[in-house]
Amino acid sequence: MSTIEGLDPRAAVADMTNAFNDYVCDTGDALKAALKKLPELAENHQDIEQGVDRWLLKVQRAADVSFDRFEASALEQSFHVPDGLMAASSGGAAGADEEEAEAAQLWEQLQQRVAAKRELRRKIAALRRLELAWESQRPSFEQLSGLSRAEGVHAVMDKAARLKRVLGGLGGARDGGALMAKGGCGGGAPRHHEAIRTVSLSDLRQLSTALCS
């Protein structure tokens, strides 16, 4: 759309929207910083981040609705021409119909472009909010991730140590049983089979506990 007296209505509305979004984001950052300085809220920094982010989201959504209405009104006023200022068409009724059809087509194209621009602006604002939310939660996530890795390594090492102790106990019991069987056969007739040491139920329970814990 051409400028009207040196003013582009779309650019003016876009500048107002961007300025408002910047102002709201700066206000949110200042509000977070002020609340975190309060001694009585020293343990609630995460709640402060989440609460201010939700407030920013609601304010920006309300602003999007208001600016959409303002933009539509500005465009409508820009295209409106008072009846007294309309010049008579030299081509008659046919020429007037063609001009109206062309104007309607241009208006539809303009509305589509405005809608696309509005959607893009909303996506940019949503990405900005996601970025702010991630930055606020990033320290907690990194701390939890580091603790999980350390706890996992210690748990695996502890299970391996318990399993080694259980298997060592089973091996010692088996060796002792074999020695007892060998000593008992010294004074009697030679046997054609060796003593078989079976694992007791308590040994199996210890092994199962070590593997599953």
TrEMBL record:
Pfam families: Mis12
Major subcellular location class: nucleus
Keyword Cell division: yes
A single cellular component GO annotation: nucleus
Localization, UniProt: Chromosome, Centromere, Kinetochore
Keywords attached to this entry: Cell cycle, Cell division, Centromere, Chromosome, Coiled coil, Kinetochore, Mitosis
InterPro entries linked: Centromere_Mis12
GO biological process, one term: kinetochore assembly
Origin: domain of life: Eukaryota
Family the UniProt entry places it in: Belongs to the mis12 family.
Name of the molecule in the record: Protein MIS12 homolog
